[in-house]
Amino acid sequence: MSFRERLRADDVEAIRTLVAQTKVFSRAEVEIAVEVATAGLQSGEASGYHFLVAEDAGRLVGFTAFGPIPATAASWDLYWITVDPAGQRHGLGGRLLAASEARAAALGCRRIYVDTSGRVDYAPARAFYERHGYRREATLADFYAPGDAKLIYLREIGASAANR
Amino acid sequence: MSFRERLRADDVEAIRTLVAQTKVFSRAEVEIAVEVATAGLQSGEASGYHFLVAEDAGRLVGFTAFGPIPATAASWDLYWITVDPAGQRHGLGGRLLAASEARAAALGCRRIYVDTSGRVDYAPARAFYERHGYRREATLADFYAPGDAKLIYLREIGASAANR
Fold it and tell me: Å from A98 to nearest chain B CA?
């Protein structure tokens, strides 16, 4: 297993497949993931997106996309974190998250925000964030659709996070 | 005074001047407004941005930028609303806001979100939204910077808003 920061051309389709596989994401959300990866591939960090790709024997098995929120001092957004279902029980998500946080912290991030859904099928996602030091900072009822709230989670990271 | 939906090439610099004039926005925020206008000019509605420009004797005196939030059923974001300081005491902002809401509602919007700051110099902006039917839905402390919270306001609009 290795982590890589720079996207390659063949990552875009691998990311599409991975995100589609996880079931919870809508078709529109899969397209957003593909757009984010495409923008990162074409424009690098000028896209505003940073990536971390997890590879196992040359195969993409997880990725994160994160970046600074424009016009904020030190707030970053974790746009995506997805791991192969087979890797979800082996702590890959937690390692990918910690590595992404450390990378963001090294670049000046002090607050990481992540949006998720209040829907029942997102319970594992919410438990994942809560287990890794995120707390729910806000709830926007009916944001995604009637009965489907947006939850905003936050983790404050100190300078020490860069040294883990 | 007239309102126009389609951006023209010379609007971009007029928007830069207008936004810079209002003082509350940082240089980074002025650049974001220019980027939004440039994207709208180049790609039209495919940019995800809708605009309403207020003109007085051929001069741009206000504008809004708004659009559907990807992967939501009927939630829109009001990205920008700015009017010439001289117009602020004559209800231009309220008329521009109402016209933008009606346009969004006609396109399927049922919830309009707007982000603003908790800073003292944003008190007039907060009072403006509250006066026009927005309520504070969430507060993200220290989001923009230490002591500078992001406030998320929401107005729910019914089908009737399209008929105003």
Answer: 21
